[in-house]
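Why this split exists: single-chain examples teach little about how molecules sit against one another. For that reason, every record in the complexes split bundles all components of an assembly together and asks for one structure covering all of them. Below is a record exactly as it appears in the raw files.
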Amino acid sequence: MSHAAASASGSESRALVLQEFGTLPLLVKRPVPEPMPGHTLVRMEAATVAHLDLNVLDGRFGILPDLPSVPGTQGSGIVLASATHPEGALVRLRGEGLGLSREGAWAEHVLVPDAAVEVMPEGTDAALACIYFSPVGTAWTAVHPIAQVRPGERVIVTGASGAVGAMAVQLAARAGAEVVGVVGRPAKLLHVPAPAKALLASNLSEAAIGGKADVLIDTVGGAVLRDALALVRPRGRAALLGYTAGRELTLDLADFFLADVSLLPVNMISRGREVAADVARLLQELASGALTLPYESYALEDLGQAVNRLRTGEAVGKVVLEFSAGVG
Ligand SMILES: NC(=O)c1ccc[n+]([C@@H]2O[C@H](COP(=O)([O-])OP(=O)(O)OC[C@H]3O[C@@H](n4cnc5c(N)ncnc54)[C@H](OP(=O)(O)O)[C@@H]3O)[C@@H](O)[C@H]2O)c1
């Protein structure tokens, strides 16, 4: 066991523990987990508060933990003890039922299966390490393999200040497209990345975007999707990937044939592996500042505020819990 692991062993550590679905986890002190074969002990630096985590808190997901349990499906931290991963390395934690069928990342120290651990390139920012994969992978998949955005095309991105939306705006612009970023509330207009034209969903019209669009990348669903879809030209493409604003879309088949727009689902469960190398390359660009991924960060004791920002849709980009440095 490393010096850091030995000094953490037997000491106390803070954790957010969910006692009952439909409530917020309570911040409690408990012993640092003991190292175990096949597992990695990590001192957490950051953890994501994601829509999936909210579903777990609410007890509304197909896989739920036995309570009490620590939520948190993704995080990042420093390895304290592991037979598989280098001690002292910054790692990303995900998968293997983390925060679902087993305890998750909302704790200062976590013990996770080795397979849930991925070592990050040296110098990666800890918050970035826990948030980048899904938005970058999803945006890349939508813009490139799915919508195949080409130079000179006009692209509408909805939810353009969100994590996936902001990344899709930047990647479509890099592909040479003229991008219109659509947001739901005025406060978000300022957060649409340049060089996109920022527009309120309530002001969306063919005149406002300068003609029909070639491509729609929709991250919100619901009425925003319905309205934006009407602005895509015949033989255009619409990549659909989210439904925070509503999960139903009504299609009049006659109108659908007439509109002649391809509706293309983005499914990162099936596409994640295919884009892993592109995502790794883009992480370097995030680290250098060539691309930006918005996020808001909160202390463990401010979980309620973090959850509220995400639930109300007021949050700009990802929501992250950042743990105080130097514990353990
Ligand atoms: N298909 C896939 O494989 C895949 C992969 C990753 C993510 N996703 C989904 O993609 C969507 C976007 O992810 P993200 O990480 O970019 O999320 P995010 O940062 O939270 O952005 C979501 C955006 O949705 C808009 N929104 C509209 N109605 C909302 C409501 N009732 N509550 C919250 N937000 C609302 C908000 O923008 P305005 O305020 O401008 O309306 C917000 O910026 C999510 O639904 C996520 O589950 C899908």
